[in-house]
Amino acid sequence: MIPSLQFACRSILPRMVFGAVAMLACVSGLSGCQAVNGVTSATIAQLRIIDASPDAGGLDIYSGTSAIAYNLGFGTITSYVPATPSTYTYSIDTAGTRTALTTVRATLATAKQYTLLINNAAATIQSQVLTDQSQPAPSGQISLRFLDEAISPGAIDLYLVPSSSSLAAVNPLQTGIVFGTNTGYLNVPTGTYTLYVVTNGTVISKTTVPLYTGASTTYPAGSARTILILDQQIVTAPAVQVVTTSDYESATATQ
Length: 255
Description:
The chain is mostly beta strands.
């Protein structure tokens, strides 16, 4: 019998995670359970899971008939784990049952990284497998991919403001972003930035109140990040929260 091992994961909303730490069974092509972040291999693929469905409750993830993750909750982002390159069918089930809410079929290729993304409200829950960047950004740049998984705010604009500037002094990085948008990887100069999210079409002024204001963040040269925009829970008006995941970290990265 192949033993189950802990699957490293974190949740931005601990109160939404149902039960104990998520677990990963090393079966159905998953050849190990250590995190492999930004390190490619000539013989394996890598897969992580993001649960962005705000109201689906606990989820179990199956590859074919084998469980690979248990009891994931909203906001959970697992580590990457190695997987044997092959074609898989992933089933996203209500925790503790074999009631499939959504399924997706994907081929994992050698030396590639992937994200199994679960999103949308429970009534229309969806799943897809995204190909992540597994090589460095161009010299002197960073690669940022934005995934808008926030249902309530409607269309939004994104501003990435350098530490030496202000919100009112820069142009938006992206405008009219709507739920389900995947911007792909955008290359921007290496530096320290603050992310702002505002309602689409907002005319920026000194009195503008963004939907989200991030912390000042320094991105290492050559790195790649996925920035996940999610609904904020338990609020009286539409709001968002943002989570950044590391897709690639150069072995020679500098600040």
